[in-house]
Amino acid sequence: MPENSSCLDPKPMIKLGNGENLPILNYNLPQTTSFVANVYLPVPVDAGKFKPNYTNHPPSGESYYDKVQTIDTVQLTANIANSFAGVVATAPASMGTEVSQLSVSPLVNIADAATLTLAEVPTGPVLDIKVAGMPVDQVAELSKNAMPVITTNLAGHNVIQFRPKPATVKPEITIVEHYRVNTYLGRYGAGETVKTFSLLPGEKTTISIKTYKQTVTNKRDVQNVLDSFSDESASDLETIAEQESNTHTKSSTNVAKKVSGGLSLPLPKISVSASASYSKTTNSEREESIKTLNRALSKQTQKSVSNRKVEVNTETSTTSTESEESTVTRVLENLNKSRTLNFVFRQLNQELITITYLDDVTFVFSNGYEEKKIVTKIDGLLQMLEEVMTNPADALVTFQEIVNQLGNVYDYEDATNPKSFLEKYTENIWDFFNHTPSSNWPPANPPIMTTTRFRKAPNLVSNYVPYGGAAPISVRGIIKNVTHRVLPTDSVIVDSILGQGEALDCFNLKAQDNIILNAKLDNDIKQQSMDIIEAITDPVEKAAMYKKVFGDCCDVPQSGGYGCNCGSTDNPTNPET
């Protein structure tokens, strides 16, 4: 056997093979950290085309901001508490106590609850409840100056936004494009060297491995929304995205137009007016918003990389950082007598493939007042436009412009051949009341109503092939960005390297050779004995011979001819017994 060869055939850590009935690793599975980012695209419409009741301030006393000023804070607190926790009422004087009747009403709008007196102010304290995590008395106090609206943040939790009274009435139509950000596992392999150390011949040591997850102080810094989604990482991404927007973009939108759920990306630094060419702005705005999202994700993941350090300690045996987490300890020993054993620890890295694609579209009309806000999908867009615009012809033109934009969306790599996000189809309605049940449906006679409608293309699929030979990743939308990122994990891989230098002199090397030779001779003697015994066909004779060879004593002249167990009082062949 060659000097440096191993008795084990070197094989890869994971081998899938090419035959049948073998395990298959499917990388086309998104992580649970998938989230939605919202891009707000304004539709250039002249303010004079909207109906007067959408361009003027609400009549005095009709808006929330007018109604709430007539209610004192105590009553306001009771109204909100009653809506969310039940009806608090004062019992008859004879009982002298306060009772609480549980409300079965679903969660209601805070603004409506605040301005509607659902019960008289109780004589005792209002129930100690929280609305979207905020004490009800604090909600009531802030509601005096701003309209409370419950929305959903990136982490999926309900939060309250307080929207101040708009200074002016500015009617706007906004396209809200919902981009889903999916993260897929890519390649996995060894990264930077964490630690190397050596064991001298015969030396033993104890090591401990401490990961970045066990450092409580930087827990928030190591998390990100791609592989460690949490409330902290979601909030951190929203902060970074806002900072990026302040640097690279200018937001001409306001909170009144925002929809609940997902990460809100501001408008890019592009001037959009009613006279602007709509076809020249939408795609460029879309691209800039996706770039803002990608910059925010890259900054957050880079912060995670810089804080994900794994420590291999050769001096400390064990350290506990939390009740559920403790460092991993190992005892290593070099069994070699003449060579040094070297260990190399490398932190394992995981490649993450982030795909951002257009998944859905919402349309919002707002003039600054929440009461006038209208949110719809593509099937209700034309009806919404006809509701807020004076001339039906203008509504139809605006509708056609929006549909054309969504019918010409360019993906991340093809700037010449657009894809259609929408599908145009015909909806037919037949007369069901005069239909004979025995005949086929739909009937052969013409439908009584035919409507042209639009929807997201049901067969819309985009594919991305990560690298040669890998299975393509498919998403049901139009891909706008693909980014490969490599993040360190809390795992390490260890390899050993046997030193080439001999630590023994010639005499000791030969002594070691003699020890090996003696062990080999002992094995040869035992093997020869086994071969002789195996050649015996009689089972009884074979058993007796086995006992003679491997027992305490054998039939030799020194035993006096008494056979096995010579000298034993239990042996009837011994004449001395």
* Total of DSSP H or I helical runs spanning 4+ residues: 12
The tally of domains stands at: 3
Please mark out the parts with pLDDT under 50 across 5 or more consecutive residues, or reply none.
Answer: 86-107, 248-253, 268-276, 316-325, 558-562, 571-577
- Strand segment tally: 21
Q: How large a portion of the residues is in β-strands, by DSSP E? A: 25-35%
Q: Please state the CA-atom Rg, rounded to the nearest Å.
A: 39 Å
Describe the structure in your own words.
It contains twelve helices and 21 strands. The chain is α+β, with helices and mostly antiparallel strands. The strands form eight sheets. Strands 1, 8, 10, 15, 16 and 21 form a six-stranded mixed sheet that branches. A three-stranded antiparallel sheet has the order 11-9-14, with no helix packed on it. It has three domains: 35-50 and 169-421 and 457-493, no CATH class; 64-164, no CATH class; 502-559.
